[in-house]
Write a structure and sequence with these properties.
Order of helices and strands of chain B: EHEHHHHEHEHHHHHHHH
Number of strands of chain B: 4
CATH superfamily of chain A: Formate dehydrogenase/DMSO reductase domain
Radius of gyration of chain B: 45 Å
CATH topology of chain A: Formate dehydrogenase/DMSO reductase fold
Structural class of chain B: alpha+beta
Number of domains of chain B: 3
Distance between the termini of chain B: 110 Å
Oligomer: heterodimer
Shape of chain A: globular
Largest interface: A-B, 71 and 71 residues
Radius of gyration of chain A: 23 Å
Structural class of chain A: mainly alpha
Order of helices and strands of chain A: HHHHHHHHHHHHHHH
Strand order of the largest sheet of chain B: 2-3-1-4
Number of domains of chain A: 1
Strand content of chain A: under 5%
Distance between the termini of chain A: 35 Å
Number of helices of chain A: 15
Helix content of chain A: 55-70%
Chain lengths: ~450, ~375
Amino acid sequence: MSTVDYTQELSVIEGKPPLRELDDLISKPIDAKPTKKFFIALTISGSMLSLLLIGLGLTFYYGIGMWGNNIPVGWAFDITNFVFWVGIGHAGTLISAILFLLRQKWRTGIARFAEGMTIFAVMTAGLFPLIHVGRPWLAAYLFPYPNQHSIWVNFDSPLLWDVFAVSTYFIVSLIFWYVGLIPDFATLRERTNNKIKKITYSIFGLGWRFSNKHWQHYEMVYLILAGFATPLVLSVHTIVSFDFAVSIMPGWHATIFPPYFVAGAVFSGFAMVQNVLIIVRKIFNYEHIITLDTLEKMNKIMLLTGSMVGYAYAMEFFIAWYSGLPIERFTFINRAFGSYAWAYWVMISCNVISPQLFWSKKIRRTIPVMFVIAIFVNIGMWFERFVIIVSSLSRDFLPSSWHLYTPTYVDLMILIGSFGFFFTWLLLFTKALPVVSMAEVKATVTGSQPSHKDH
Amino acid sequence: MISGKILYSYTGIFDTPDQIIHATEKAVESGYTKYDVNTPYPLHGMDKAMKLKPSKLGYVALVFGLSGTLATLLTIWWMSAIDYPIVIGGKPLFSFPAYVPIVFEVTVLSAAIMTVVSMLFFFFKLPNNSHPLHGTEYMKKVSADKYGISIQADDPKFNESSVKKFLESVHATEIIPIYWDEEEVNHKNKILEPKFIMFLIVVAIITSGVTYFSFNKLMYMVPFNWMMDQPKLSAQQQSPIFADGFGMRQPVAGTIARGSMVYQFKGQPDLAGVKLVNPIPISKESLALGQVKFDIYCSPCHGYNADGVSRLRGQFPNPPSLHSDKVRNWSDGRIFAVITEGQNTMPSYSSQLSFDERWAVINYLRALQRALNAKESDVQ
């Protein structure tokens, strides 16, 4: 039996670094001139981003016919990418809100970064419904505003719920992120000697003065925001899953979709956060802030959510058989052995089998192995959405309308480009803002809180 | 003009969290009320030491959250059940379960925005970059790794020497006086500064220019074609697809389009009277249609009762009554010929009334005629 003293809280940060050293370390990437490595990374992500711009240009100029979408496969890469990217965002909110409510202190090192990833992932996701509507410059029609048609939007439609869910999610995540950044802006303001930086930080820091009268309200608001963000993040992917579950398409019309989608979202999101953090902690020397323990805990969450996703796959098959509906049974047999069987088995092996390796503590703590597994998880989760959308649509109720889907080069350009969009924002973020919350990390260093010995 | 240094507060710097908690407790004991504690991060137990009341921001969130819920529900109800009711999927006009997601999202959105806005702008009165504590050595320290207490000069118990003594007694490592910034105290914000007005003008020009350009020009440039560019042919357009170069096609030889039957008795009303047979049986529907069309097209001259009582007050020659024996004895086909081709000063109504509508008008006219010349058998 191990003898862990549960009455003592374990330190999140390794060692006991002086607080000023933490400030120096965290603000180093912002103060220092960008290195060659940074420019190489920016060039790669920028080239990917330009693929997106070319793909979007072709789409807008010639129309959506540039994509491989057809009837009945009207939703293909675009909606697959949308669901994938919204899902990536969910890990950030889970880390910043749910783990905050559960008093999981290990989140402090990774919360800021994960929240940033949430915002960029939702921005990337938001591109897809917009370009999917064909004429994105008319996207304002999605909102209920008094217009010359004197008609309102359809509040009974899951697609409209989606508009509200994703835009609320983006705004609340942004507010949450900004509220967390205010004290750090103030710290940066006091540190810098550069005049332009000082003005910029003063504007964004709003003149925060670390007053305890403010901290008291601030902590309250942070708790309230976490309390709101928690049901919000669960609702967002639930509503995304309603886009499918509320329809009557075989393979979509299932009550298991909301929990299954939320688990999948957290799964892929954690994989993405883990991948990026492994690189960040290496480049910026944050090994003692983003510790191996933290990474191990993230792997545990991936094991849990991966198993939940695996359970959902099995349960879908069972219900298809148990329902006795021939069309439902056909859909699932078609998924596993039909035209898109290869995608299905990529999904199963990446999502269900690969995270099971995390049962071994050694693998959970070996960085190269967990990095590769997380990449597999992301590939698998992208294919999960592809399988759900394309295999169901291409084999719907009427055999006469069956049609297979093949992506065009524009589809692939937009898919690769979406990664470029995401990573370009992420790279600029690492140079512009502190990627670790200074105030939060300082508050969790050993000895940074009063001992209350005299009480 | 205020000159000379004005004291804002005396501040003490401490190295450890335990010391600042102790100092704060002592400050409260000594009866100071206008003081503040500045720490780089929130300290556990500081609220208790400062004897602060619990934050009221929770109520702000509650109030704005609930008003968001209510406002959204009312708005959706008004939009989909009152202002533009459409039945969707056989659901009731106000289908509450379908509105739960949106109501929830807006609740969260309004509560989150309003809580943060009230905190920053009403509770804290931020942004405030001209506070005397800004730009001081004290702020530099408490923003990084030190803990400080600042006892303000406007505290009723404030006295320079006693405050200094107090800070020494709680072992402050450094004691720094903070003064109001002279420039800031004497600075008067002038709204009508030329620089500011220039700025406003530039902003106005840029905003209106960009708005005008994007809404009136940009939105009508390629690829924003508003679906005007469609791969289809309009009437009279040329087309290289067909040998004759016309976009329009002739109907197949010997056929006519539905509802475009040609009138075969042009100039031969009597022949029409013999050959044409009314294909529309008298029914409630046909009489109703006939009445509508009669009242629109025939009644201005012939009168509502077909008795020749015109509403045109002599601006057009009055036609004779249609209850004459001549007209009553005409066949339906003969009347059809008059409607189709006109007669004397009456013009043709073939462009206003379709074949079926003409027959319906005739049916209605027959009913009017019968009403004025009722036989005893009709009463039974």
